[in-house]
Write a structure and sequence with these properties.
The chain has 278 residues and is of the alpha/beta class. The protein is 36% helix and 23% strand. The protein has 8 helices and 11 strands. The protein has a 9-stranded mixed beta sheet, sandwiched between helices. Strands 6-7 form a two-stranded antiparallel ribbon. Helix 1 links the parallel strand 1 and strand 2. It is globular. It starts with 9 loop residues before the first strand and ends in a 19-residue tail after the last helix. The model has no long low-confidence stretch (mean pLDDT 95). Bound molecules: 3-hydroxy-5-(hydroxymethyl)-2-methylisonicotinaldehyde. 3-hydroxy-5-(hydroxymethyl)-2-methylisonicotinaldehyde binds next to strand 1 and helix 7.
């Protein structure tokens, strides 16, 4: 059978493998599969753990291997319904740009999660010019999913965890200038005790906002769970707002379950038990 006529929807997931810690591909692959989507990983970096709560993870830069893998896929014209990019190194942005250009021309949906920081800080290992370069990758995306920190970093604003209405309107306008069709901002706090997600369009119009009670714990991998579910739903044909609503609900339930087991499960989201409830 031809591989160019795929029987189910196929997503290229460009992201790292953090072997322990539950983020990136170790989250994305099972979630996409659970939603009936064929997940094809293009690993960017191989790490022993994520860079959040562990000292000195091992790292293997897979840039050269990425180029070889993509070239091999091209040799038999492997087709994708979606390109979903996440954590990558600065020298991999140009590889991702090529992939995006090629596959959006062929009709693939482009989802860029501009993974680079949280809670007001960039993750370790990124240089100061990274946000500007990631912003360029976002400009041709159908959907981007920055958290509040990443939204601020890409628009040059100073980080504040709680935004006034005027500050958020200003941020939404600056984000819409990036050029992506829809911008889904996660981890937005209208007040200290609430947190939620916001969707704006290319013109900076607010399409959706939904807030839930905030918990104080920092949990790694929330963004990856959210973006993976969102990707699955969008590729499955749902419209952006119902897909965001579903992803927000799923991630909220995973956070709740994780918080019930907070001491043992401090390193990532305990999403597994939700997989038979989708
Ligand atoms: O979940 C975001 C993420 C992805 N990949 C790596 C990370 C992090 C967050 O810390 O360290 C390697």
């Amino acid at each position: 059978m031809s591989l160019t006529q795929q029987p189910i929807k196929r997503v290229m997931a460009v992201n790292d493998i953090s072997c322990f810690g539950k983020c990136s591909l170790t989250v994305t692959l099972p979630i996409l599969s659970r939603f009936g989507i064929e997940a094809v990983p293009l690993p960017t970096v191989l790490l022993s753990t994520h860079t959040g709560d562990f000292s000195k993870p091992t790292r293997l830069d897979l840039t050269d291997e990425m180029k070889k893998i993509v070239a091999h896929w091209e040799s038999f014209q492997l087709k994708f319904d979606c390109i979903y990019t996440g954590y990558m190194l600065e020298n991999q942005l140009s590889v991702a740009e090529e992939i995006i250009k090629m596959h959006s021309m062929r009709g693939a949906m482009i989802l860029v999660d501009p993974v680079m920081g949280d809670n007001g800080y960039m993750y370790s290992g990124f240089e100061r010019d990274f946000p500007g370069k990631m912003r360029a990758l976002c400009q041709n995306a159908d959907v981007i999913t920055p958290n509040l920190t990443e939204a601020m970093l890409m628009t040059g604003g100073e980080y504040k965890s709680v935004l006034t209405k005027a500050e958020s309107s200003d941020l939404y306008k600056r984000l819409s200038d990036i050029g992506a069709k829809h911008i889904v901002i996660t981890g937005v706090h209208p007040t200290d005790d609430k947190v939620g997600d916001v969707v704006i369009d290319q013109n900076g119009c607010l399409l959706y906002e939904q807030y839930l009670p905030a918990t104080n714990r920092r949990l790694h991998g929330c963004g990856d769970v959210f973006a993976s579910v969102l990707c699955a739903k969008l590729v499955g044909g749902e419209d952006i707002l119902s897909a965001v609503r579903y992803a927000q609900d799923f991630t909220g339930r995973a956070i709740e379950i994780t918080n019930q087991d907070a001491q043992a499960h401090w390193y990532g989201l305990k999403f597994e038990s939700l997989m038979d409830k989708v």
